Known about the structure:
Keywords: NADP, Oxidoreductase. This is Short chain dehydrogenase/ reductase. It holds the Pfam family adh_short_C2. By secondary structure, this protein is an alpha/beta fold. It has a single domain (9-257), classed as Rossmann fold (3-Layer(aba) Sandwich). The chain has eight helices and seven strands. It has helices spanning 18-29, 42-51, 70-84, 108-134, 168-188, 206-211, 218-221, 232-243; strands at 9-13, 34-39, 59-64, 89-92, 146-151, 193-200, 254-257. A seven-stranded parallel sheet has the order 3-2-1-4-5-6-7, sandwiched between helices. The radius of gyration is 17 Å and the shape is globular. The mean pLDDT is 97.
Amino acid sequence: xxxxLLNGVAYVTGAGSGIGQxxxxxxxxxxxxxxxxxxxxxxxxxxxxxxxxxxxGLEIETIVMDVSKEADVVDSLQxxxxxxxRLDYALNNxxxxxxxxxxxxxxxxxxxxxxxxxxxGVFLCQREELKIMQKQANAGxxxxxxxxxxxxxxxxxxxxxxxxxxxxxxxxxxxxVVGLSKCDGTFYAxxxxxxxxxxxxxxxxxxxxxxxxxxxxxxxxxxxxxxRAAQPEEIADAIVFLMSPMASYVAGSAxxxxxxxxxx
Length: 264
Ligand code: NAD
């Protein structure tokens, strides 16, 4: 892909680690020069900024915020408009794993926390992003008014397996992200705003490392026909595709990037 594939202002949540960090690096690699990166963790954001050090002409706004807090989300997107004047690409990606316990053992607070971050966080960000994009000129069928990608999961399409850990809160939260992406992807397409979900399989990021310290999930990763978990960069490339004019006819979709895990 060309290094000038993307041209505009980007906003990424959960940009301090894993997929969000790799996606930030990829957005810049493929042309973005004005980007707002947000996360709960200042340390994570500092790491991401360090990875981009030395990039010619790059302007970065770093914002510590919590996607489950309405005021934080509104404020962060107002900062984007104040600094950069517009928004072309948004990746709503911040998320947590959810309590890995079956429903009969689940505390309400654990279920609600997962929904608040993984689902409500995406809704809040998307709502504010749409308000900005709707005010921009429609640059035609290939560019439109903007593109939004929501990080769901293959567990937004299927359940966690019957053997091993059940994670109902995560499955519910990610199915909801797919639903929101389809509903809004359908509604806003005619306004030139493309919204899609990305559904990764297992990806070797800190969220997964924290639950796989003893390597017990390696056999699970190997069930993907490609025989391994993904690297975050492989998800980032698919995100860049969905945001780019190369995906100009892709709207309201849930793109699966899971090494074939859910295909059989
Ligand atoms: P990660 O833990 O490496 O990164 C998540 C980032 O989100 C962290 O930097 C964290 O600080 C931030 N974050 C968490 N809660 C937040 C909040 N309330 N507000 C703002 N930021 C917050 O995890 P990752 O694997 O890169 O996950 C990114 C997304 O990808 C998540 O939505 C996750 O569910 C999804 N996903 C991950 C995998 C996987 O196997 N790693 C697979 C499918 C989907």
